[in-house]
Amino acid sequence: MPQDASAALVSPGAATVAPGEGAAPLVEVRGLTKHFPVHRGLLGRQVGAVRAVEQVSFDVRRGEVLGLVGESGSGKTTVGRLLLRLLEPSGGTIRFDGLALDELPDGALRALRRRMQIIFQDPYASLNPRMSVGATVGEALEIHGLAAGAARAERVIQLLWQVGLPAEAANRYPHEFSGGQRQRIGIARALAAGPDFIVADEPVAALDVSIQAQVVNLLQDLQEQLSLTMLFISHDLAVVEHIADRVVVMYLGRVMEVATRRQIFRDPRHPYTRALLSAAPVVDPAARGERILLRGEVPSPLNPPSGCVFRTRCPFALPDCAAVVPDLRPVAPDHSKACIRDDLG
Fold first, then answer.
1. Pairing state of beta strands 116-119 and 25-40?
2. Are 9 and 239 contacting, i.e. CB atoms less than 8 angstroms apart?
3. Which of 22, 122, 138, 141 has the lowest tally of Cβ within 10 angstroms?
4. Whole-angstrom distance, CA of residue 315 vs CA of residue 213
5. Whole-angstrom Cα distance, residue 214 to residue 77?
6. Which among 275, 236, 234 is positioned nearest to 4, based on CA atoms?
7. Quick one: 250 exposed, middle or buried, by C-beta within 10 A (0-12, 13-18, 19+)?
8. Collapsed DSSP state (helix, strand, coil) of residue 167
9. Which residues, given as ranges, of the chain have pLDDT below 70?
10. Rounded distance, CA 220 to CA 232, Å?
11. 335 near 259, Cβ under 8 Å?
12. pTM of the entire structure?
């Protein structure tokens, strides 16, 4: 088995039309913001806020896989949880199938949750060790009133087969399975309610390299078979290049670039995207372009830089970058970047 999981992945096609292109988005995000208050002292007085997500906007088209990439601490996971209302946003709007989630009453939001599910990063922490696999996978069927009794048991077995697990797995417990098998159980649980939209939050990051490709290929097959719409969160660019149709690049809570997979990996326009790609492992080092070394450390989200948050590490920063917060603007068809410079490609 190759050392890099990307070597086991099938090379992505060169299609120029992304699935769902031209269709109305299933998920629309506008100005999404999340600040976590910081309290100190005996009285718990708020002394600041962690600006985890700041003015994030993008669409997830029906039937596509949208990759969300960036360094640790960039706000990727927070965005995913905000979309599912597992966290309450500090500002901005999220529309799912035309419905504004912040305007829905609790009952309507609860019913809508059936159509939105998540695959968690850690297959060891996300499964209840006291529940059998059958109970775990079938819980959503019971909560949403989709199946009961023999029909529920039959549906659980179908879901297990769908993710490559035998029927007898339903009677066993999570500790009896490997990490890859546990993640398959998590995938089956996410599929149980028949969702339209899935947030896959670093679904292979906690797995051995030798089985990462198997799980990624399973997700891709299921997405195509079930016509799912997916937000795929990852820091692994090789995995994102394999599975995503379009890519959103984040840094310190803000979106830096949005483009098709082909444009991001072959013609990146933002300096941060270029630096991220230049640091990614490659099979043939001789084929790597010029390495872009970023100066300094990632600033604290407690006190982000003024203007462009990337300016303190950007090799192309101008004085204006400290004063202007760059808007996400189109630079080519289906390709946008948040940078004031037009002379970087």
1. unpaired
2. yes
3. 22
4. 35
5. 23
6. 236
7. buried
8. helix
9. 1-23, 282-289, 345
10. 11
11. yes
12. 0.90
